């Protein structure tokens, strides 16, 4: 086994020989109280017969290398190709690698995964398989343990590492669903704002309109859908949305479509289970009134919520044109291969004319780990805001209290 990112080794100056490649999760993920996620290792092994889903991401004709220059040509106003975005089928012509798909599928069949349990993405980005814990451990030299979050009543089966066998290492960049931990830190408490949404120090749509001289328009272009990305068990409440619009004199609107899980009853059981999602939905609809809004939610059982997100968008021939992402985690503890894959798929989204906005976080460059702990300060960019193909959005404060606007940071609240 070779613990390296490169999957090819030049021998004798001529032959290219594929080597097996070991992929390991960041060691912090397996430490107690690491502050990255709330999953605790029970040290218990799941049943080998338990069904499990993973995705093998393919190299796509090495399209990653060509994508940046193509994106520059369609997004630069000075380019003759500006605005000539690619269609779903045109993306397929560039990324579909029949040889890679055939080789990986053949390998999986030989190892007991039937074609009926394999799903090839429409444009060939990945192959999603359903197998058992035991078969996945055998095929990819992994060892699963059960992790549990008491706060979220959530159980996941995760392996610290896996090996890409030499037979497919030439074609596969990574596997999603084996050693992926959820990025998680607790959302802000929202109880006080629910009790008094007009309290001094609270933000309102009118405050935003006044601060930035924004017209309160209700005629946003309905040809472009906008979407909020939600995960980690968050839900939004249609009833809360209606009350929000009534409270702030906003024309009544409803979410156009819900993709993925959403349980409004969670908002009554525990308002913090809806704090992030309600905030995202209410304010994007208040700022772009009339624009069709899609609620795009990722199942809470997913490990890397961003890998699952790019998989689902890659499969969709007509996704929203604008995504807002208010989730993230420290770049340094994320898998390098996962981040590279996210960057590549985001570049392809740009080729399709899709715009992603991502939150830079609430704590500046030090990240949330330095919140209340100055010794943790350092250069810790947030993922996926570190992606070169997203628009990073920060936050300011001051106007809500009648003070000058300054950049938002932890020590100022």
What does it look like?
This protein is of the alpha/beta class. It contains eleven helices and 21 strands. The chain has helices at residues 63-75, 88-95, 98-110, 133-140, 191-195, 205-211, 238-247, 265-269, 275-287, 305-315, 336-351; strands at 8-11, 15-18, 21-24, 40-41, 51-58, 118-120, 126-132, 144-149, 154-159, 161-164, 172-176, 226-230, 257-259, 293-297, 322-325, 329-330, 355-359, 382-383, 391-393, 396-397, 406-407. Strands 13-14-12-15-17-19 form a six-stranded parallel sheet, sandwiched between helices. A four-stranded antiparallel sheet has the order 6-7-5-11, sandwiched between helices. Strand 6 (118-120) and strand 7 (126-132) form a beta hairpin. Helix 7 crosses helix 9 and helix 10 (305-315) runs parallel beside helix 11. The longest helix has 16 residues, at 336-351. The radius of gyration is 23 Å and the shape is globular. The termini are far apart.
Topology:
Blueprint: E1 8-11, E2 15-18, E3 21-24, E4 40-41, E5 51-58, H1 63-75, H2 88-95, H3 98-110, E6 118-120, E7 126-132, H4 133-140, E8 144-149, E9 154-159, E10 161-164, E11 172-176, H5 191-195, H6 205-211, E12 226-230, H7 238-247, E13 257-259, H8 265-269, H9 275-287, E14 293-297, H10 305-315, E15 322-325, E16 329-330, H11 336-351, E17 355-359, E18 382-383, E19 391-393, E20 396-397, E21 406-407
Parallel strand pairs: 12-14, 12-15, 13-14, 15-17, 17-19
Antiparallel strand pairs: 1-2, 3-10, 4-8, 5-7, 5-11, 6-7, 8-9, 16-18, 20-21
Helix pairs in contact: 1-11, 7-9, 10-11
């Amino acid at each position: 086994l070779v613990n390296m990112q490169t999957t090819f080794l030049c021998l004798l100056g001529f032959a290219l020989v594929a080597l097996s490649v070991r992929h390991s999760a960041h060691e912090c993920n397996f430490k107690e109280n690491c502050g990255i996620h709330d999953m605790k290792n029970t040290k218990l092994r799941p049943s080998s017969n338990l069904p499990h889903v993973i995705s093998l991401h393919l190299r796509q004709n090495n399209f990653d290398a060509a994508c940046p220059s193509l994106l520059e040509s369609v997004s630069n106003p000075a380019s003759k190709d500006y605005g000539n975005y690619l269609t779903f089928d045109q993306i397929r012509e560039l990324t579909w690698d029949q040889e890679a798909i055939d080789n990986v599928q053949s390998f999986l069949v030989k190892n007991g995964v039937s074609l009926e349990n394999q799903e090839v993405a429409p444009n060939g980005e990945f192959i999603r398989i359903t197998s058992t814990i035991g078969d996945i451990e055998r095929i990819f030299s992994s060892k699963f343990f059960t992790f549990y979050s008491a706060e979220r009543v959530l159980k996941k089966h995760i392996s610290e590492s896996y090996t890409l066998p030499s037979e497919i290492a030439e074609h596969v960049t990574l596997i999603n669903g084996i050693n992926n931990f959820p990025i998680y830190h607790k959302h802000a408490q929202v109880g006080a704002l629910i009790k008094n949404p007009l309290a001094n120090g609270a933000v309102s749509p009118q405050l935003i309109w006044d601060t930035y001289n924004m017209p309160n328009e209700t005629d946003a272009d309905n040809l472009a859908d906008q979407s909020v990305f939600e995960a980690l068990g968050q839900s939004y409440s249609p009833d809360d949305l209606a009350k929000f619009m009534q409270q702030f004199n906003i024309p009544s609107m409803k979410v156009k479509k819900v993709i993925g899980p959403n349980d409004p009853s969670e908002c009554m059981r525990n308002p913090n289970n809806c704090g992030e999602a309600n905030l995202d939905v209410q304010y994007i609809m208040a700022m772009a009134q009339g624009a069709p809004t899609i609620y795009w939610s990722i199942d809470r059982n997913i490990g890397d919520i961003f890998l699952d997100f790019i998989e689902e968008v890659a499969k969709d021939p007509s996704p929203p044109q604008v995504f807002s992402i208010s989730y993230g985690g420290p770049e340094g503890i994320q898998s390098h291969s996962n981040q590279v894959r996210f960057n590549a798929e985001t570049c392809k989204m740009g080729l399709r004319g899709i715009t992603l906005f991502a939150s830079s976080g609430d704590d500046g460059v030090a990240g949330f780990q330095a919140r209340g702990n100055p010794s943790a300060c350092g250069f810790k960019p947030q993922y996926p805001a570190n992606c070169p193909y997203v628009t990073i959005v920060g936050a300011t404060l001051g106007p809500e209290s009648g003070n000058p606007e300054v950049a938002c940071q932890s020590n100022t609240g």
